[in-house]
Amino acid sequence: MYISHFYLEDFKRELKSRYIQQRPNTNVLNHLSNDQTAKAEIVKYVVEWVKKSDRSALPTHFHVQWAMESIGYAFSLNIDQHSTIKQAIEIYTHWLNYSKLDLRPSVIAEEEGFYQREMISHFSLLFVERGGDSKRHAELCAEALYAIRELIRTQNLEEITWGHLLKIMLIITNGLLRNKSSMAQDLCPLLLKTLFEIWLRSDTRDEQLWTELHSGFPYWLGHMWLVYQWNTVAFALTERVASIIYGDEHPYLTLKFKAFKQPTEEKDEHLTLPFTTEQTIFFWAKFMNLVLKNMPQRTPADPEVHRKLAKRIAEFTNVFLGINERRNLPRVFQMPNIVKASTPASLSQLTKEFQETHFHYLWGISRLAVPSANALLRIFGRWLFYYARSKDKFIDECRAHAVGALCRIMCRGSGPVGRQYVALFYKTIFECVSTDKSSTLKAYIAKNSMSLMCSELEGINVLLFEGAITEILNTGLDHSGNNGPKFRTPFYYILSSFVGTVHLYENDKLKKVVSGILLDTLKWETDENNFFRLVWSISVFLSTLHADSELLTEILRALVERLSYIDCMKDHRIYKSLLKVITTLPFLLNSKVIVDEDLVTEVIRKICCEIKNKLTVKKERLLSSLLYTLLHWLVCFPYAALNTRSTALEVISLAYKIDVIRDIANYAYDFIMNNLGKQLPPLSYTAYDSLYVSTGSFSFHQIKLGGKHFLMGGRFLLSFYDSSQDNPDHEEILLVMRNPMGKYFWKAELVYSKEPQPKDQLQLSMAVHPPKPQPRNSGDSEQKEGLDSNLNESEQTLFQELKSTMEAQEKTCNAFKEEVRFEDSHFRVNSQKEFLPKSYRLLLTHLGLFNQENLESLIALEGQELKTKIIELDSISDKECISLPVLYLKTPESKDTEVLASPDYYSRMFQQFLPQLGVLLDNSHINIGIFSQVASYIRSFSSVLYTSHYYYELVSLFPGLIPGESTLHDLLKEREIVVMWNERANDPHSKKFPSLLEHPVLAKKVCILLTPLQKDLVKVNIWPRPKRQDSATEVIDSGPLMNDMLVPLYLLGSLLVRSVVNLNDNLKGRISGRNRRLNIFRSLEEMGRKAEATKNGKLSAILSHAFKTN
């Protein structure tokens, strides 16, 4: 007798179950009487008697079976007779326990299986609801389940007994869990836990039992604990399957059951079962199908069950995606140990293929073995797409988990993804965006799609074209929605990922929507991490605007306006981020768009106003940064500087009164007065195989430290070098002007010709006509006018010659007035040689240094001490020299030896990227003056890439240009930033980070990883990454490049250089260099004054130095 075969009517029907044997000679009490009271009394007496008796009281099978008629009937008694029921449970618990032989009749051991099946059947009667105290009833049922659980954990059951037990458990579970009674709710956790444990231990392959479990499962979904307990089993099997395929096989399956308090308190339990590979794969498929194939045919009515179930399915996908994430980390790939001992012949070929795939990757002939998006979608796609596209408004969170899982698969799963899945995914996103009016679903999409726009999904741009992504951003970044900072973070990641590519689509509507989002969020965003992403996204967006001056004007004004409304003390990190962006923008805009002069003037004036307002704060770092910002705008837009020069100097004079920033104020003043407009000759970008820079215009040749040197006003050292002494008709000099801000090179070339050149061929910075002969007045009064009384006769003669030259030049210039032009940082002078004893003397007169007004501040310098001072002066650079190693990685597994070797081939995109880092310098450029600071790099590495601006020089060290042997340590030592180009030649769809990132020499360094994608786009990653994938904490505190950003190839170089320069900015170092140079100038002035004291007069000393032959 058992739960559905107990009453007399049941025994009249033929039992058709092949799992439970029919016994007509049982159920004696029901046949004897209908009096429930009498039967209860009999049962109570027999149970108590058996409980008190020893094992000898039931010596034969007949006696045992006779006693079991009453004990089994006890489980059908009303709950108010719980004492008798409890004693019956205790009796059967002892009889089922093989270790307690002294407590059970000896004959049971003779037919162990038969008695086990009978007792299990009798236990099932207890699970019939009968009213009364449901809590007490559930506790009694729990005792019976504990007895059964003890049985399966301690004894090896016969196959027929396993079938019998499974069938009985199915009947019990179906009877209880198809309704939501109080008893069913209380008993559900333990009942399902026991059922699933029995199922696993039985190792049943009986298709009929699996079919009954499969068909009954959907009807149990009204109970949340079904989701919990099924998930425990299915999740453990999923992890085990993943380890079999991708990692080490373990002989045990570990189930982590959740604690519960009903019907009795049970703590968390980790249950370990011995499981073979074949068992694992078989049971994983069966248990997964309980949900994946049962639903959506029948769905739970409780939305919370929907939500939990969807969340658990999403976690299964994460098991496989976690393998992707771990294997894509920058680690050297380790061959997993796939054990074959437990693998049957039917699976041996499959496990062999698993192992060969890993070996092939190590040999470079196969892709990295990671779960592909296609494989995951074949398993989970039908279920996920169904719920993600469901229109049921009661399961919004279920939809959210489903679409979130789909987004993660698309972002993290190995590609390429099949077109059918991609198309269905896009359709799902559009449906979610158009039908969901709340922010929940869009938030799940954003949270799991932060790198979606950086993925290589075919046609991903359709999400932008059709407005799906912008609609998601508008919802998540809506200020009226009161969304918290963490909620908004993923939306900013999505925005920053594609903001640099908007202009490529040539879609004015899209550009307008994106700019609207940027402008709107700029007004109210207050979270420092989100604000950081926002403002640097704006900077990248602005750098892509080529002709839209109205949009540029609007955004630029908004940035500067926002700065004035931020409390620099309370929100100092927000203020710092925005100020850094405003400081960087001139360099991004200057070469990209023609910025309206009035707009730049307005920005500079507002910066000056902001400095005035912040002077009362008296914070050194803050005020220094503001002054630094001002200098950047002035140097990048010198035409606007002319309109704002007085305003800037006024602000600097106010800043000078504050002690903590007096040095920076002095530096700013000198910069505006002496350094503004300083430009190097243009260094143009060329193809990689023809990188060069001309040396002729800059070479010192045999100049070295010779020449003539004059100190002007105690702050300017003018050095003239004659570089063409062998050609009497073609003189060339180099003028090096040194001041406290640095040194400047001017080349002057004098070409003598007897016939004047046509005007259109002069190419002069100052046009000069041949002078007409002038009558000389030899009167003594004119000759002596303005002469130094201490001049001797020979000096007077020289002076008259010089005076004649000056007069001729003055008359010529008066006769032909043309605007002075500066071309390519050099000027060329044509004149007739008869007036010029030496070219640098003419240059002195052109500079106006021989008039009486300037003479007093001019000091002639010479001697060995001067040479020492010049060397010391030139050793103090006016620029920061930044070195940047650039490594080309053919594959993510490339080792340091491969990186340092010169490969035979570089990709087209890399060859287009490399020249953006500058021009090629080699040993032929070591002695060129403007490259003096990078000469040490050229000596060490033979060839470097070089670019320069007014306050920095960037030297890129690329192993492919370095001949000979070098080590990674030599290349990377003392360098904080490294650039890696991850070509992925072995797998264009690989998401693996280069294993080289874990090299010890890269510890504590920031690595900017560049991964080329299709359509000349490059994905940027910053390593090390944030600790959590959704963390907003940036690895570096500067931009414009950020983690998971997509950048057009043509724009990559400028953004990379600016990011590197921002990270290495050292204003204090430049101020210190200026102060050191000032001290040298003071010593030069003192040295010159002492030398003059030994001369007869000022002009005598100057002329003696100028006209003396070296």
UniProtKB/TrEMBL annotation:
Superkingdom to which the source organism belongs: Eukaryota
UniProt-recorded Gene Ontology molecular function terms: GTPase activator activity
Pfam families named among the record's database cross-references: RALGAPB_N
InterPro entries: ARM-type_fold (IPR016024), RALGAPB (IPR039930), Rap/Ran-GAP_sf (IPR035974), RGPA/RALGAPB_N (IPR046859)
Stretches for region Disordered: 767-790
SUPFAM superfamilies listed in its UniProt record: ARM repeat, Rap/Ran-GAP
Domain Ral GTPase-activating protein subunit alpha/beta N-terminal, first and last residues per copy: 135-247
Example GO biological process: regulation of small GTPase mediated signal transduction
Name of this protein: Ral GTPase-activating protein subunit alpha/beta N-terminal domain-containing protein
Source organism: Fabrea salina
